[in-house]
Design goal:
Layout (H helix, E strand, L loop, with lengths): L2 H8 L3 E6 L2 E9 L3 E6 L4 E9 L2 E6 L5 E8 L2 E8 L2 E13 L13
Antiparallel strand pairs: 1-2, 1-8, 2-3, 3-4, 4-5, 5-6, 6-7, 7-8
Length: 111
């Protein structure tokens, strides 16, 4: 999935992901390639994303960037973690999307 395709699909929506059949987290996407990730425990991280070739990369706060290869169809895709062009073995499956904002209280998070 290219960055442009991902942007058209995600901007203005909240995407939900699972791992091994269990909910893992959700990410809300804003204009300007900004995002807000919410872990299943309710904690949140603001981030930015960009394209690097066929990868979608994210950076949250001061943490190192994380790149993912999104593959599959628009309603059924998998995000595979990549490091230096090699799969890490960690993958998340897209489960669904909606247009509801995430509940991320606190001074450091939100739109």
């Amino acid at each position: 999935m290219t960055a442009e395709t991902f942007e058209r699909f995600a901007e203005g929506r909240t995407l939900y992901f699972s791992r091994d059949g269990a909910p893992f987290g959700a990410e809300q996407y804003f204009a300007g390639r900004r995002s807000l990730w919410q872990f299943e425990d309710g904690s949140c991280e603001e981030g930015r994303w960009w394209g690097e070739g066929r990868l979608i990369c994210f950076r949250y706060g001061e943490a190192a960037s994380q790149c993912w290869r999104f593959s599959g169809g628009p309603d059924d895709f998998v995000a595979e973690s990549m490091r230096d062009g090699i799969e890490t073995g960690f993958a998340l499956r897209f489960s669904h999307a909606d247009d509801r904002p995430l509940a991320c209280p606190g001074p450091k998070v939100g739109s």
